[in-house]
Design brief:
six-stranded antiparallel barrel, single chain, six-stranded parallel sheet, Elongation Factor Tu (Ef-tu), domain 3, 14 helices, Rossmann fold, 2 domains, alpha/beta
Length: 351
């Protein structure tokens, strides 16, 4: 059921341009049984990493690229340990979880996520990952001992040959498993453990937590640096109140399932639609000039005149311009929006 829902919610990604959605072939598998059924008894071994990978930031990208390179190198050497055509290659794979384990173990401390699961899987595919085992994190999985987790999923199911993790990696019931135990189990069951060093941004380790703080603080340029791409919100166009189009400037309104949103205010953005990418200015806020109370994400696209009411949409946040303000009326708001547009155009202009 989890996998079916994931495939359904990935629909909007396939509506976006390929370079933006990162479309590539990736096997999405929702259980150990499905992995074995879909890939067969003669299935290849894997080079695999384990984690939540929220945001797929620079540190995650380093692990995933290393993983893909190691799988390719093993295939080139013919490094299979079993006989058979399927074993002449190793799959670059990820073992990940849904929902985030903290939702079950520490719900009051669970982080707001940077991406939805489908977005995360699309990022994996764009980086060359061939297969993802998405385990539903429930009470049963939470009770699995570190040894049982490794034996069932890494050894018996994924046939891991190399496992890449960070130095602080923890796993199993109450997170009692650590890198030292993983290495011991690797020696017992025939897989190598590679410790990947973190990536730093200045003097700080790049992390999902640091990116969340940057986004929520409106520091989208800091987030962009740690992600190696602009922070983006993706989802569907929804119909707005129509006040902006009539009284100020036409906008497209975004409905998104993403949990981490930029600080309210006005941003220089790029808006991605199925037909292309457009320079834009986006307001994140409650529209106080119109006495609004519900949060809205409204983008005015330059050189775009269509009145869309549905379809896929993604907004990339490039730079914050100002706080959201309450103006005396629509005319004063429109005057400020036109100034925002001019500032944005100057930022887009080549230096």
């Amino acid at each position: 059921m989890l996998l079916d829902a994931t495939k359904e919610t990935m629909r909007f990604l396939t509506d976006l341009p390929a370079h933006d959605a990162g479309r590539a072939d990736i096997r999405l598998l929702g259980s150990a049984d499905e992995w074995e059924e879909r890939l067969g008894k003669d299935r290849p071994g894997t080079v695999v990493t384990i984690g939540n990978f929220d945001g797929v930031h620079l540190g995650h990208q380093k692990i995933l690229r290393d993983l893909v390179e190691r799988a390719a190198a093993a295939a080139g050497r013919g490094d299979a340990r079993e006989v058979g055509e399927a074993q002449k290659q190793l799959l670059p794979a990820v073992l990940t979880f849904y929902p985030h384990p903290a939702r079950l173990l520490r719900p009051q401390q669970a982080p707001s996520l940077l991406e939805t699961l489908p977005q995360r899987l699309a990022d994996f595919a764009a980086l060359g990952i061939s297969a993802a085992l998405v385990l539903q994190f429930d009470a049963v999985l939470a009770q699995a001992s570190a040894k049982d987790f490794v034996r069932e999923y890494l050894v018996d199911t994924m046939r891991a040959r190399t496992v890449l993790v960070g130095a602080s990696f923890r796993f199993g019931h109450k997170q009692l498993g650590d890198v030292e135990l993983l290495q011991e189990l690797g020696r017992r069951w025939g897989f190598e453990v590679v410790i990947v060093t973190p990536v730093f941004d200045g003097g700080d380790v790049v992390s999902s937590t640091a990116i969340r703080e940057a986004v929520r603080g409106g520091r989208v340029e800091d987030a962009r640096r740690m992600l190696a791409r602009p922070f983006a919100l993706a989802g569907e166009i929804r119909t707005g109140t129509g006040q902006g189009r009539k009284l100020v400037v036409p906008t497209l309104n975004l409905s998104t399932e993403q949990e981490t949103l930029p600080k309210t205010g006005v941003y220089v953005t790029e808006t991605v639609l199925p037909g292309g990418t457009y320079r834009s200015v986006t307001n994140v806020g409650v529209r106080p000039t119109f006495d609004g109370t519900c949060l809205a994400i409204e983008s005015h696209l330059f050189d775009f005149a269509e009145a869309l009411t549905a379809g896929a949409m993604k907004v990339r946040f490039l730079q914050r311009l100002r706080d959201e303000q309450k103006f005396s009326g629509p005319e004063a708001l429109r005057e400020q929006v036109l100034k925002d547009m001019e500032r944005a155009k100057s930022i887009f202009a080549p230096s």
